[in-house]
Amino acid sequence: MICYLDLLKSFENNPRDIITIPITKREGKWFYVYAENGRVIVTGAKEKFPKCSISKNRILQEKECEVMYELYLLRKQGKQISAEAMQSSRNQVYWYGIFSDLGY
Question: Which of 7, 35, 62, 87 is the most exposed, fewest CB within 10 Å of its CB?
């Protein structure tokens, strides 16, 4: 199981570009993740292309972490969870990319 503190530690120590992980065969897009003031923040990629279109920084809410992780695990098993994910967070693609990057 992952907790929000794990994400904070990882991105405080090593902010980085991460790629989305679409289920379809299309190419993922890159975004940048860092931690600041106890928050995990997503913005446009710094070095990688193609970049996600993010007009302003997005804060990933701690209260969403556990639910999004559970949905990520179901998604990895091939379950259809897009409706539930959209209801849980408008940032689901970033959550999935982060969990994948961290090796979950």
Answer: 87
